[in-house]
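<context>
A single protein, sequence plus fold
<sample>
Here is the protein in question:
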Amino acid sequence: MGRGDTPNFAVAIARLGEVAGYICRVGDDEFGKCFLDMWRREGVDTSHVIVEEGGFTGVYFTSVKDGGEHDFTYYRRGSAASHLSPADLDLGYIKMAKVFHSSGISQAISRSSREAVFRAMEAAKEAGVLVSYDPNIRLKLWPLNVARPVVMRTIRLADVVMPSMEDLKTLLGSTSPEEALRLILKRGPKTVAIKLGAGGCIVASDGKTVRAPGVKVKLVDTTGAGDAFDGALIVGLLQG
């Protein structure tokens, strides 16, 4: 998975003082070694990262547009990450966690990785572990007719769902944040936080809805902003 949404989430968790571990496959190439070193420096537990002999670490390139928005070019087909499967999972490790988190990108890169995400979430639910999910829909990685049913099924398994408004427009069509909240909550999550970019966020939990404005900053690059938001929200929930 390399540098991407789920490792960004893990690093955000570690930087905010909680303990984070990462489950994935990387290649035994220089990229894989670089990522392992970086995660360890950030305090992320890499004991369940599998280094695939002869495998290559998937990469993607981020193009930053005027105004700080971004676009991605992916080279992940056949990567070590795409070979992740349910057989790679240590379910005991997952069941000991406070929170299990995954994303739509982990589901998009291959069928076996998608199956691994579902198996991990089911094991977490069985053990009473909080399940958190960011749909993070990237149609360059999988077509909408595949993505939509997978994401909707995953939302039903999750306790906390943290989509962007762009994700929800892709899934549900044109709708307001309030209507999107209602539609997602109907599927079972306890907490839904919709990311609205510069508009901040709207969060529903325990029958209450809160809208928080965005913090004004000089925009340089929005890459990873949603992942950092996810990590901060989960740490906030853990800390009450």
In short: The beta strands are 21-27, 45-52, 59-64, 70-75, 99-103, 130-134, 160-161, 191-195, 201-205, 208-212. The radius of gyration is 17 Å.
